[in-house]
Design goal:
- This protein is an alpha+beta fold and 99 residues long.
Amino acid sequence: MAPRLQLQAVLEDIVEPVYFQPPDNTKIKYPCIVYERDSSWTIFAGNGPYARKKRYQVTVIDRNPDSELPDNVEALPYCQFQRHFSASDLHHYVYALFF
């Protein structure tokens, strides 16, 4: 299974639905997780890339300000909280996740 699909499965264990780079016309159901490829991290050795990790921006979106979903995402390995914001009565918790 491709690494991104493995990540999809991990996130679906936390909550469903999970959306990967949803187009603007997608009707999103809450609570949910939305994620997209963000960046990557590379270690170089011997004049070439030695190790690489893809970074994803993972956003938990929920109406409940006391939701446990953000804690469950933040507990994932190589995950770091970036910021929180509210919009349209929805709480957005944004994380950087290397996978």
